[in-house]
Amino acid sequence: MTAIILQKKVVNDTSLLLKTISEKGLLQYFKIPGILKSQKRSSMLLSAGNIWNFTTNNNIKKTIIPREFNLVQSPFDKEVKYDELKQIAELLKIFDFFFSNLELPSLYKKLYSLLEKWPVLNLDERNNKINRFYLFFLQEMGLFNFSDLCQKCKKPLNENDYYFLAEGTLCETCGKSNIVLDKNYFSYGWVSTCYYDKSINVIDKYNNLSRANRNLICNFLSESI
Ligand SMILES: [Zn+2]
Fold first, then answer.
1. What's the CA gap between 221 and 215, in Å, rounded?
2. How far is the CA of 40 from the centre of ligand 1 (A)?
3. Å from CA of 73 to ligand 1 middle
4. Residue 11 is assigned to a structural domain of this protein
5. Distance 157 CA to ligand 1 centre (A)
6. Position 171 in a domain
7. What phi and psi values does residue 110 have, to the nearest 5 degrees?
8. Total of domains in the chain
9. Where is mean pLDDT largest: 40-49, 115-124, 173-182, 213-222?
10. Which of 12, 62, 80, 192 is the most exposed place for a label (fewest CB within 10 A)?
11. 176 part of a folded domain
12. Which of 82-91, 93-102, 144-153, 190-199 has the lowest mean pLDDT?
């Protein structure tokens, strides 16, 4: 079973407990007993963001102890830089938070393909992908309407050149005429503005959300990323 590691925790001093999203798109825990005693190197690669294949005895349990495990793909370069670690940590934190709450099976493919091409993306492209993740989750909750067309002039958007607005996305030309917008910038602060600023239209949509989704957003905003 292929799975993407979302969190790694040391248990009983020498074992690892891995929180993952499996290829079935479901939350799956794996326990690797004693690995910190015998295989320090592998244990480093059993960290968040790495994709592994776990051979199991087909038992459907909440926590599985795999018979074998092999690395499939790692988003990290050989020499890991601090900025890169921080970006992946942010990406996985957003993902983990929303996945654990929304449990959308389609999320596995989304994260897999992103981590797969992560090594060839530059810093700006990676930030852009992180922004897209924020937008995707807001969209899933009905708070944001992401379109590949400019909301004003209806022209197709260039993937790396667009502006965000609470009501949708704008192209370079239409975006430039609005000085309050930040180009390609989307962040925790932006979500928070949407949430607290009653003058922004998104609040009307927010009022129609289910109680569960409202709580989800409240929790998201109370966590610092
Ligand atoms: Zn436009």
1. 10
2. 53
3. 39
4. yes
5. 8
6. yes
7. -60, -50
8. 2
9. 115-124
10. 62
11. yes
12. 190-199
